[in-house]
Amino acid sequence: MSGNTGYYIPSGYGNGEYEEKRSRFISYLDTVESEEEAKAFIADIKKKNYDARHNCWCYIIKDGPERYSDDGEPQGTAGMPMLEVLRHENLTNTVCVVTRYFGGVLLGTGGLVRAYTKATKEALQNAGISVVRKWIECSIECPYPIYDRLRSEIDIAKGIAKDIDYGKDVALTLLIPEESYEAFKRAVSDISSGNIETVLLNDTYRAVPVK
To answer: In a designed cystine with 123, which of 14, 23, 107, 174 is the match (CB 3.0 to 4.6 A)?
Structure first.
Protein backbone atom coordinates (compact mmCIF):
# COMPACT_ATOMS: atom_id res chain seq x y z
CA MET A 1 0.00 0.00 0.00
CA SER A 2 1.48 3.32 -0.98
CA GLY A 3 0.78 6.70 -2.49
CA ASN A 4 -2.80 7.97 -2.13
CA THR A 5 -3.94 4.81 -0.36
CA GLY A 6 -1.46 5.23 2.49
CA TYR A 7 1.47 3.36 3.93
CA TYR A 8 2.27 1.08 6.88
CA ILE A 9 4.39 1.88 9.93
CA PRO A 10 4.87 0.31 13.37
CA SER A 11 2.23 1.49 15.82
CA GLY A 12 4.99 2.32 18.28
CA TYR A 13 8.10 0.98 19.93
CA GLY A 14 8.51 -2.79 20.09
CA ASN A 15 10.96 -5.01 21.92
CA GLY A 16 11.57 -8.75 21.65
CA GLU A 17 13.99 -11.48 22.65
CA TYR A 18 14.89 -14.87 21.24
CA GLU A 19 17.39 -17.37 22.63
CA GLU A 20 19.10 -20.24 20.84
CA LYS A 21 21.98 -22.34 22.16
CA ARG A 22 22.65 -19.77 24.88
CA SER A 23 22.95 -16.88 22.41
CA ARG A 24 20.51 -14.06 23.24
CA PHE A 25 19.01 -12.01 20.43
CA ILE A 26 17.37 -8.84 21.75
CA SER A 27 15.37 -6.80 19.25
CA TYR A 28 14.41 -3.13 19.23
CA LEU A 29 12.04 -1.63 16.65
CA ASP A 30 10.48 1.78 16.22
CA THR A 31 9.01 4.32 13.81
CA VAL A 32 11.29 7.02 12.42
CA GLU A 33 10.69 9.96 10.10
CA SER A 34 14.12 10.18 8.47
CA GLU A 35 17.41 8.40 7.88
CA GLU A 36 18.99 10.64 10.50
CA GLU A 37 16.48 9.44 13.10
CA ALA A 38 17.16 5.82 12.12
CA LYS A 39 20.92 6.30 12.52
CA ALA A 40 20.42 7.96 15.89
CA PHE A 41 18.23 5.06 17.06
CA ILE A 42 20.90 2.55 15.98
CA ALA A 43 23.63 4.55 17.72
CA ASP A 44 21.63 4.65 20.97
CA ILE A 45 21.12 0.87 20.95
CA LYS A 46 24.80 0.25 20.19
CA LYS A 47 25.77 2.52 23.08
CA LYS A 48 23.35 0.74 25.40
CA ASN A 49 24.65 -2.69 24.34
CA TYR A 50 28.31 -1.78 23.92
CA ASP A 51 29.39 -5.14 25.37
CA ALA A 52 27.41 -7.25 22.88
CA ARG A 53 29.11 -9.33 20.18
CA HIS A 54 26.89 -7.90 17.40
CA ASN A 55 24.38 -5.08 16.92
CA CYS A 56 22.82 -5.82 13.54
CA TRP A 57 20.34 -3.39 12.05
CA CYS A 58 18.14 -2.36 9.15
CA TYR A 59 15.85 0.47 8.23
CA ILE A 60 13.42 1.52 5.49
CA ILE A 61 12.59 5.19 4.91
CA LYS A 62 9.54 6.34 2.92
CA ASP A 63 10.68 7.73 -0.45
CA GLY A 64 14.21 7.16 0.79
CA PRO A 65 16.83 4.47 1.30
CA GLU A 66 16.80 0.92 2.60
CA ARG A 67 19.92 0.00 4.56
CA TYR A 68 21.12 -2.94 6.63
CA SER A 69 24.21 -4.23 8.39
CA ASP A 70 25.36 -7.68 9.50
CA ASP A 71 27.80 -6.04 11.96
CA GLY A 72 30.33 -8.85 11.75
CA GLU A 73 27.94 -11.76 11.33
CA PRO A 74 28.41 -13.86 8.16
CA GLN A 75 27.15 -11.96 5.13
CA GLY A 76 23.41 -12.29 4.55
CA THR A 77 22.60 -13.91 7.89
CA ALA A 78 21.37 -10.91 9.91
CA GLY A 79 20.62 -7.51 8.37
CA MET A 80 18.97 -8.80 5.20
CA PRO A 81 16.69 -11.34 6.97
CA MET A 82 15.65 -8.54 9.34
CA LEU A 83 14.92 -6.25 6.39
CA GLU A 84 12.86 -8.98 4.72
CA VAL A 85 10.56 -9.09 7.77
CA LEU A 86 9.83 -5.38 7.33
CA ARG A 87 9.39 -5.74 3.57
CA HIS A 88 6.98 -8.65 4.03
CA GLU A 89 4.65 -6.36 6.01
CA ASN A 90 5.11 -3.50 3.51
CA LEU A 91 6.50 -1.31 6.28
CA THR A 92 8.26 2.00 5.82
CA ASN A 93 9.73 4.61 8.17
CA THR A 94 10.89 1.71 10.32
CA VAL A 95 14.19 0.90 12.05
CA CYS A 96 15.15 -2.33 13.79
CA VAL A 97 18.26 -3.38 15.73
CA VAL A 98 18.91 -6.92 16.93
CA THR A 99 21.64 -7.25 19.55
CA ARG A 100 23.35 -10.61 19.95
CA TYR A 101 25.04 -11.72 23.13
CA PHE A 102 27.09 -14.72 22.03
CA GLY A 103 26.46 -17.93 23.94
CA GLY A 104 29.60 -19.77 22.92
CA VAL A 105 28.01 -22.10 20.36
CA LEU A 106 28.13 -21.42 16.61
CA LEU A 107 24.64 -21.50 15.07
CA GLY A 108 25.52 -21.84 11.40
CA THR A 109 24.02 -19.84 8.55
CA GLY A 110 20.50 -21.26 8.88
CA GLY A 111 20.45 -20.83 12.63
CA LEU A 112 21.50 -17.20 12.40
CA VAL A 113 18.92 -16.36 9.74
CA ARG A 114 16.22 -18.02 11.84
CA ALA A 115 17.29 -16.22 15.03
CA TYR A 116 17.48 -12.73 13.53
CA THR A 117 14.19 -13.26 11.71
CA LYS A 118 12.37 -14.47 14.83
CA ALA A 119 13.74 -11.67 17.00
CA THR A 120 12.62 -9.05 14.46
CA LYS A 121 9.17 -10.60 14.13
CA GLU A 122 8.72 -10.62 17.90
CA ALA A 123 9.58 -6.92 18.20
CA LEU A 124 7.19 -6.11 15.36
CA GLN A 125 4.40 -8.19 16.90
CA ASN A 126 4.80 -6.27 20.17
CA ALA A 127 4.87 -2.93 18.35
CA GLY A 128 1.83 -3.56 16.15
CA ILE A 129 1.23 -2.15 12.68
CA SER A 130 -0.68 0.99 11.68
CA VAL A 131 -1.72 2.36 8.32
CA VAL A 132 -1.19 6.06 7.65
CA ARG A 133 -3.76 7.41 5.22
CA LYS A 134 -6.61 9.86 4.76
CA TRP A 135 -9.79 8.70 6.47
CA ILE A 136 -13.37 9.93 6.34
CA GLU A 137 -14.92 9.97 9.80
CA CYS A 138 -18.66 9.37 9.74
CA SER A 139 -21.50 8.23 11.97
CA ILE A 140 -24.32 5.77 11.38
CA GLU A 141 -27.32 4.61 13.41
CA CYS A 142 -28.17 1.08 12.38
CA PRO A 143 -31.15 -1.12 13.37
CA TYR A 144 -30.06 -4.45 14.83
CA PRO A 145 -31.63 -6.62 12.08
CA ILE A 146 -29.18 -5.32 9.44
CA TYR A 147 -26.18 -4.76 11.73
CA ASP A 148 -24.36 -7.87 10.46
CA ARG A 149 -24.77 -6.70 6.87
CA LEU A 150 -23.43 -3.28 7.82
CA ARG A 151 -20.40 -4.88 9.46
CA SER A 152 -19.76 -6.76 6.24
CA GLU A 153 -19.83 -3.50 4.25
CA ILE A 154 -17.42 -1.90 6.72
CA ASP A 155 -15.03 -4.81 6.18
CA ILE A 156 -15.36 -4.56 2.39
CA ALA A 157 -14.50 -0.84 2.60
CA LYS A 158 -11.56 -1.67 4.91
CA GLY A 159 -13.09 0.65 7.45
CA ILE A 160 -12.55 0.72 11.20
CA ALA A 161 -15.15 1.13 13.94
CA LYS A 162 -13.82 3.92 16.14
CA ASP A 163 -16.75 3.76 18.57
CA ILE A 164 -19.84 1.53 18.93
CA ASP A 165 -22.79 2.22 21.24
CA TYR A 166 -25.41 -0.50 21.66
CA GLY A 167 -28.64 1.30 22.52
CA LYS A 168 -32.06 1.26 20.90
CA ASP A 169 -30.12 1.04 17.64
CA VAL A 170 -26.43 0.49 17.09
CA ALA A 171 -24.67 3.87 16.86
CA LEU A 172 -21.28 3.71 15.18
CA THR A 173 -18.52 6.20 14.56
CA LEU A 174 -16.45 4.92 11.65
CA LEU A 175 -13.21 5.66 9.87
CA ILE A 176 -13.55 4.81 6.17
CA PRO A 177 -10.65 5.12 3.68
CA GLU A 178 -11.25 8.19 1.55
CA GLU A 179 -11.22 6.26 -1.72
CA SER A 180 -13.87 3.82 -0.40
CA TYR A 181 -16.25 6.33 1.15
CA GLU A 182 -18.65 6.99 -1.75
CA ALA A 183 -19.02 3.28 -2.53
CA PHE A 184 -19.58 2.60 1.18
CA LYS A 185 -22.35 5.24 1.36
CA ARG A 186 -24.09 3.67 -1.62
CA ALA A 187 -23.83 0.20 -0.09
CA VAL A 188 -25.31 1.42 3.21
CA SER A 189 -28.17 3.03 1.34
CA ASP A 190 -28.78 -0.18 -0.62
CA ILE A 191 -28.86 -2.53 2.38
CA SER A 192 -31.20 -0.21 4.29
CA SER A 193 -33.44 0.69 1.32
CA GLY A 194 -32.36 4.29 1.82
CA ASN A 195 -33.36 4.40 5.49
CA ILE A 196 -29.86 4.78 6.99
CA GLU A 197 -28.03 8.07 6.64
CA THR A 198 -24.24 8.13 6.65
CA VAL A 199 -23.36 11.41 8.38
CA LEU A 200 -20.02 12.95 7.43
CA LEU A 201 -18.16 14.26 10.48
CA ASN A 202 -14.75 15.23 9.14
CA ASP A 203 -11.71 13.94 7.31
CA THR A 204 -8.38 13.23 8.90
CA TYR A 205 -4.91 12.06 7.89
CA ARG A 206 -3.64 9.78 10.64
CA ALA A 207 -2.15 6.47 11.64
CA VAL A 208 -4.71 3.84 12.63
CA PRO A 209 -3.73 0.41 14.06
CA VAL A 210 -4.56 -2.51 11.77
CA LYS A 211 -2.61 -5.36 13.45
So the answer is: 14
